[in-house]
Design brief:
single chain; nine-stranded mixed sheet; 26 strands; about 45% helix
Length: about 675
């Protein structure tokens, strides 16, 4: 190649360098600029003289210093490098570059580096603005049209108002699979597990709202991190209306997902139809509102799965007695409704309800355990009690609540006087707290005797005489206090009064017998219980063996190792531990054996004693079992001479019931002590 051709080529490369629209520059091996084109000066605002022989790192932002130096060293080794970085121009503005570095090789030796960079600042800014606009739009859509959730450890950590609206309840703190349709739970678990591999998933499934209705949703979920913990972030759209419109699936709309009986949606629609039909035909129909006592306890003992099994069995049992004009609905939780159309006379309803109550005298089986549960039933009649849906439903519920309070039989027909007699639940907690604060409770004592009728103990029972409502059954306010979280204060009141009374009897010269105190399972779990008992023993200077701690058989299933330790400490204090209601079918021999070193006394449930003539062998078996475990035995609920004579033939240690005495006021029980 001659000199002229060399000159032409040199001019070509110089033009390519000088007039290139991208930033073109070169470094020596120390990282100092040795040349740069006009675009570098234009973009960075520095003149050629200001930049030549200056280190390239002087314009690189701190966060990109390390990575730029790394790529520089790699290029020096002969490896071309391509990367992104931020630099600062003369005005202090941030410039984003897409840079390439490659070696200058002369005679096989790297003598410097070339660099070519594209200014992508504007593109990045446009992209950032686009993402910000997209994010704002996405949030707006989610807040208005979609449910949004964050899940941690299969529990809703956060849900937006739309999510709560779709499912009809506050979801935060709820176990996720409690709202997923049972048949879809495995599919949802697998879909969520795919997040680990895919990063995001999109699928359709079925959820269940507060009233047991199925909600079809489309879910988009991604895996994320919140406060250092893995979470699932997702949205769901309610597609139920779309599904119903296309499929017209009556079962999804009108039937309860769990039990298969008609649901609340169907119930409220049908009520309008029943009223219209009865008005046109001048007929009577009855509405039965049914609620199951102790269902919460079963749910707590066996979990939601056990509770669901019981609801299914309850529904099947009620369905089995329905006639052509009788219709069953599940209207929420453990509440059901039955509508009886074309009723000729009130006696028809009475006969049906009696049959309904009879079928619940038989036990249910949950996880190989025998469970008994009974309903409270309230009845309202059209048109006698009301002529519109809302009032009929309210009045049936009022009657049911009255039955539930234990003031009458297990079913009640509505009448106007009930409105002022049914305790308003909204006020119950407030009035209970006032009663605790002002100590408005009293105690009565039911004597416990030996086989000859001699007084050997007593059970302390709480009573509440409300200033406006009069006597309120413990069967009403004790379960409510447990749910409201104030049962511990009530139990503390009882134990304080018992200790105080025992001390008073002792200083008055009476020969005191052991007094048993009923404790809630929640109270036993309270860490402050044992210290409070220690203080009472010290304050009143009484023999701890005069105090018995009475637990229900069902509470054993809720105890943990910590509560087992609490009972052990109570026993070490000298207190006796008694197990009440044994034989109701909730616990097993394994639980009894587990607590054999703690429980001193076994109380046979009164249901066995009331039928002791037929149950003698069974009662003897329970007594034999207790004796093998070194436990004393108490038979409670003795009401007749026949029961008394029958129990005398056993090895039972103590007897209790109305045959000997009703629960007595302090003054009356003191007379019993005086006769010892």
């Amino acid at each position: 190649m001659n000199d002229w051709e060399n000159q032409i080529n040199l001019e070509k490369y110089k033009s390519l360098f000088t007039y290139n629209p991208d930033l073109v520059y070169s470094f020596n091996l120390e990282g100092l600029f040795t040349d740069l084109n006009y675009t570098v000066q234009e973009v960075l605002g520095y003149s050629y003289e200001e930049m030549i022989h200056q280190p390239y790192l002087s314009i690189v932002t701190p966060e990109f210093q390390s990575i730029s130096a790394h790529h520089f060293e790699e290029a020096k080794k002969g490896f071309p490098q391509k990367y992104e970085l931020d630099v600062v121009n003369k005005k202090g503005e941030l410039i984003h570059l897409l840079a390439t570095k490659f070696p200058i090789v002369i005679k096989g030796e790297v003598v410097g580096l070339y660099g070519i960079a594209k200014d992508v600042t504007k593109e990045r800014r446009i992209l950032k603005d686009f993402y910000e606009a997209e994010e704002k739009f996405r949030k707006l859509v989610e807040n208005s049209l979609a449910g949004v959730y964050i899940i941690e450890n299969d529990t809703f950590l956060y849900t937006n108002p739309k999510a709560n609206e779709i499912l009809g309840k506050e979801l935060e703190g709820t176990y996720v699979y409690d709202v997923v349709y049972p048949e879809d739970q495995e599919f949802v678990r697998k879909s969520n597990s795919q997040l680990i591999e895919k990063g995001s998933v999109r699928y359709e499934t079925r959820l269940v709202n507060r009233d047991g209705e199925i909600i079809y949703v489309e879910i988009i979920a991604t895996k994320s991190v919140l406060n250092g913990k893995d979470v699932l972030l997702g949205t769901f759209l309610d597609k139920t209306s779309q599904i119903y419109a296309t499929e017209k699936n009556e079962k999804l709309t009108n039937f309860d997902y769990l039990t298969g009986v008609m649901n609340r949606h169907k119930f409220e629609n049908d009520m309008e139809r029943y009223i219209k039909g009865a008005a046109e035909q001048q007929e009577i129909f009855a509405l039965l509102h049914i609620d199951f006592n102790r269902f919460k306890y079963v749910n707590d003992t066996y979990g939601h799965k056990g509770g669901d099994q019981l609801l299914i069995q309850i529904s099947k049992r009620m369905s089995s007695i329905l006639l052509r004009n009788q219709y069953l609905y599940r209207i929420g939780g453990d509440e059901f409704a039955i509508v009886m159309t074309d009723v000729k006379e009130k006696e028809e309803v009475v006969q049906f309800v009696n049959e309904l109550l009879t079928i619940f005298e038989l036990s249910f089986t949950i996880e190989n355990s025998t469970v008994f549960i009974n309903p409270s039933v309230g009845v309202s009649l059209y048109p006698e009690n009301a002529k519109n849906k809302e009032e009929l439903m309210i009045r049936a519920e009022v009657a049911m609540n009255y039955a539930k309070q234990g003031k009458s039989e297990m079913f009640v027909f509505y009448n106007s006087t009930l409105e002022n007699r049914v305790f308003p639940y909204a006020r119950l907690e407030s009035d209970l707290r006032k009663a605790i604060q002002h100590k408005n409770f009293t105690l009565v004592y039911q004597p416990r005797v030996n086989s000859t009728g001699k007084l050997i103990g007593a059970e302390a029972l709480i009573r509440w005489n409300h200033p406006e409502r009069g006597f309120i059954s413990p069967d009403l306010f004790i379960p409510f206090a447990e749910e409201a979280g104030i049962i511990y204060q009530i139990d503390c009141f009882v134990q304080e009064e018992v200790f105080k009374q025992v001390r008073h009897w002792e200083v008055s010269g009476y020969q005191v017998v052991p007094i048993s105190i009923n404790y809630s399972a929640n109270t036993i779990k309270n860490p402050n219980l044992v210290p409070s008992l220690e203080k009472l023993i010290s304050r009143y200077s009484i023999n701890p063996r005069l105090i018995e701690v009475e637990l229900t058989e069902t509470s054993l299933l809720t105890f943990t190792e910590a509560t087992l330790d609490t009972l052990s400490k109570m026993k070490k204090l000298g207190l006796s531990i008694s197990l009440d209601d044994f034989g109701k079918g909730y616990s097993s021999l394994s639980y009894l054996h587990k607590f054999k070193d703690i429980i001193s006394i076994l109380k046979i449930d009164k249901s066995f004693i009331q039928n002791i003539v037929e149950n003698t062998d069974l009662v003897n078996s329970i007594i034999y079992l207790a004796k093998q475990l070194n436990m004393a035995v108490v038979a409670e609920g003795i009401e007749t001479e026949e029961q008394y004579k029958c129990i005398q033939t056993t090895l039972c240690d103590a007897l209790q019931g109305y045959y000997f005495s009703k629960p007595l006021k302090v003054s009356e029980f003191t007379k019993w002590l005086g006769r010892r």
